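[Discussion] Sanity-checking designs against the backbone

I'm trying to build intuition for which residues belong where. Below is a structure token string of 284 positions. I'd appreciate it if someone posts a full sequence so I can compare it with mine line by line.
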């Protein structure tokens, strides 16, 4: 196509706060955690900063970059759920300006999609400071070749991907799921509505999907799930419980539009966990 000019009438528009760090932090805060999101933002960040403050989410490691916009996606969706997305990384490209070693109180970390250089350097910094971390490449996985991915796996304590990302990781590293699990404490593979698999060095644990009342918006479900993983790891829960907790977080999120519009109290979460899986849990 030599020339393409298109114009769409968009009758409804909404603006949502999101991003992997923000989404994971929001969900972990709901569970009673004390997240320390680290990222680079632009000069337009004030409304998001006020949102974080209103929810008690720490901003000590959120760095503003002069002359840049905060990373954002513009998603146009029709009535049949077809989508056209434009993504502007903006300040995310300066992610390497942050150093994970500066978060001296951190006991566990997660590397989710970010600027390529930042992801590589943050893995090195976590390893140098002996902070165990989850490698969660997400949509950033195609930026890395096989050697890069092997380096991440060797440094990480845990790896989490969806089924598509697992296939790409296998293709680039030559590792099977069980071989990846041999390098880390666990490999977690999400399967959408089919639940998830957790590969440890000894076994594969199958986690069922939590029942969903209504399917509204899958955006951010992976981040909600990962917050559940972090909560389980921080509280020394077994993998069966951690996986189910994470699954329920994804189910709660999918029932709401946007990535940070769902809410629950500890008692509400415990009751829904009991009804979903037939066993008790306590969060606070």
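Best answer:
Here's mine. Compare freely.
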């Amino acid at each position: 196509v030599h020339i393409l000019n298109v114009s769409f009438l968009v009758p409804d528009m909404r603006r949502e706060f999101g991003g992997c760090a923000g989404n994971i932090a929001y969900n972990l805060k709901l569970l009673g955690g004390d997240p320390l999101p680290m990222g680079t933002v632009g000069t337009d960040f004030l409304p998001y900063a006020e949102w974080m403050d209103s929810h008690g989410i720490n901003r000590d490691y959120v760095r503003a970059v002069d002359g840049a916009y905060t990373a954002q996606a513009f998603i146009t969706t029709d009535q049949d759920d077809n989508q056209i997305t434009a993504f502007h990384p903006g300040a995310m490209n300066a992610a390497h300006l942050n150093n994970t070693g500066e978060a001296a109180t951190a006991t566990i970390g997660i590397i989710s999609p970010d600027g390529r250089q930042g992801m590589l350097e943050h893995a090195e910094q976590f390893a140098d400071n002996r902070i165990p971390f989850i490698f969660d490449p997400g949509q950033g996985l195609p930026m890395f070749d096989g050697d890069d991915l092997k380096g991440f796996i060797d440094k990480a304590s845990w790896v989490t991907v969806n089924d598509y990302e697992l296939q790409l990781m296998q293709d680039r590293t030559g590792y099977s799921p069980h071989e990846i699990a041999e390098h880390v404490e666990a490999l977690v593979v999400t399967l959408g509505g089919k639940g998830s698999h957790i590969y440890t060095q000894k076994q594969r644990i199958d986690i069922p999907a939590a029942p969903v009342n209504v399917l509204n918006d899958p955006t951010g479900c992976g981040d909600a799930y990962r917050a559940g993983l972090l909560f389980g790891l921080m509280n020394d829960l077994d993998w069966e419980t951690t996986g189910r907790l994470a699954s329920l977080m994804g189910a709660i999120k999918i029932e709401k539009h946007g990535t940070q519009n769902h809410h629950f109290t500890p008692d509400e979460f415990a009751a829904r966990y009991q009804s979903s899986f037939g066993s008790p849990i306590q969060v606070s």
